[in-house]
Design goal:
By secondary structure, this protein is mainly α. It contains 17 helices and no strands. Helix 11 runs antiparallel to helix 12. The longest helix is centred in the first third of the chain and has 34 residues.
């Protein structure tokens, strides 16, 4: 479902539903901005609400139905531009709020499954592998399913039906996680103090490591999601072969999944920060090289290698936020893991908003019109956007990472100190 949104929603708005570029930019920009605010609120809800059956797991059960009921309307055009855009924005915000709650709760389960640095790196990597593998499946499923449905249904009904199928798969995955983690967090709330409302903002802004990670993550994801969303335009405008989308997305997401498989091993040897920095730099270099080659097979190979490199860093995402959450609790004596992990979702939302504005801005600058013949300016503009701009953005993401100061050994010591305080009945900061 995530892959369908990141790779096809913008294309649906501009080329299928044929919203004007300025309306499409407003829809994606406003939706993502509102969704970003909801992401933080979702983390607060998770921190403040506990169920008899557990703190995190119940969200995996109750949120997917709400997502299913609203997400389908993101791929519709009902009424005039203003009404249709309003429906899409509303559906986007509702579906993504509940999606973010489930997403954040699912990642917070790492904190109750283990406190071992090696195991947390392994689980973080496996989350990334699963995420990327799902996108590989989506790259294979969505174009072919859309084509098959398009043969029997009107064009306007194709993407809503595909979205409904994606929602069912989404719900099944979360419900499976609910079942296999039975009993893991039933007593997790315990003595751990949660952050009060007046402490949320100071608690986050006072965590310099968290600020560094959020900025780094948001900027690099502009590149990641920007490339994913630009594939459809690159295939149609530059290659003049829309069928190439499936192959390119397959290489893109397979590379990410393969790289994530090596995250925990490499981070154990070189450290989380160094592994992340080198992986992102490698991705930028390899992806940028694609600009100088026009051979499709070579481009696909470099695209795979670039995303393999990025996948190593991507596999450590949850680990980075988990480390920041432990540091914050150790420093303040208050557990804010829900809010901290929701900032990972916030980075995604901000990145999607920025990439939507960036892509539509470039398309408008080169005067792209899906109803007209492709111009040389449009072709060159999309090539620069796809290879040069997004490679530069990936390199820029390394700047805030310099201010991340944590390592596995220090975080493990902090985690042990937190456990000792709980055992002694103490909750104060240091």
């Amino acid at each position: 479902m995530s892959m369908m949104e990141t790779s096809f929603l913008l294309y649906f708005l501009t080329d299928v539903a044929k919203y004007p570029l300025n309306i499409a930019a407003v829809i994606t920009g406003f939706s993502a901005a509102a969704d970003a605010a909801c992401a933080v609120f979702a983390g607060i809800v998770i921190d403040k609400v506990s169920f008899r059956a557990g703190k995190y797991r119940p969200w995996l059960l109750c949120c997917p139905p709400m997502v299913m009921l609203s997400f389908v309307f993101c791929f519709t055009r009902i009424g005039n531009d203003v009404l249709a855009g309003g429906i899409v924005i509303t559906a986007y915000i509702i579906s993504h709020f509940f999606w973010t709650v489930a997403w954040t709760a699912n990642r917070n389960l790492i904190s109750v499954l283990t406190d071992d640095p090696g195991e947390s790196s392994f689980l973080s990597a496996r989350i990334a592998v699963g995420t990327s593998a799902g996108k590989v499946a989506g790259a294979l499923l969505v174009p072919d399913l859309a084509a098959a449905i398009g043969a029997v249904l009107p064009e306007g009904a194709v993407y809503p039906v595909v979205a409904a199928v994606a929602c069912c798969i989404f719900a099944a995955g979360y419900w499976l996680h609910f079942l296999i983690t039975k009993g893991c967090d039933s007593g997790f709330a315990g003595n751990r103090r949660t952050v009060k409302r007046k402490e949320w903002f100071p608690g986050m802004t006072g965590n310099s490591n968290l600020i560094a990670v959020v900025l780094h993550d948001a900027v690099r994801l502009v590149s990641f999601y920007g490339i994913a969303a630009s594939v459809t335009y690159y295939a149609k405008i530059v290659l003049e072969d829309p069928s190439a989308v499936t192959g390119m997305l397959l290489m893109f997401y397979t590379g990410t999944a393969a790289g994530a498989c090596f995250s925990h091993r490499l981070s154990g040897r070189y450290g989380v920060k160094r592994t992340t920095a080198l992986s992102c730099a490698g991705c930028a270099l390899l992806h940028g090289l694609c600009y100088f080659f026009k051979h499709m097979i070579l481009t696909d190979m470099l695209l795979f290698l670039a995303q393999f490199s990025f996948g190593i860093a991507f596999g450590l995402t949850t680990k980075l936020y988990h480390m920041c959450g432990i540091y914050g609790e150790w420093k303040t004596g208050k557990n804010a893991q829900g809010v901290v992990m929701s900032l990972s979702s916030l980075s995604v939302k901000v990145a999607i908003a920025v990439r939507g504005i960036l892509i539509t801005g470039v398309l408008g600058w080169v005067r792209y019109n899906p109803a007209e013949m492709v111009t040389v300016d449009a072709r060159n503009g999309v090539r620069i956007l796809f290879f040069v701009v997004f490679s530069a953005v990936m390199l820029i993401s390394l700047l805030p990472l310099r201010f991340f100061r944590l390592d596995d050994a220090s975080v493990f010591a902090m985690s042990s100190d937190i456990a000792a305080r709980e055992l002694a009945g103490k909750g104060g900061g240091v």
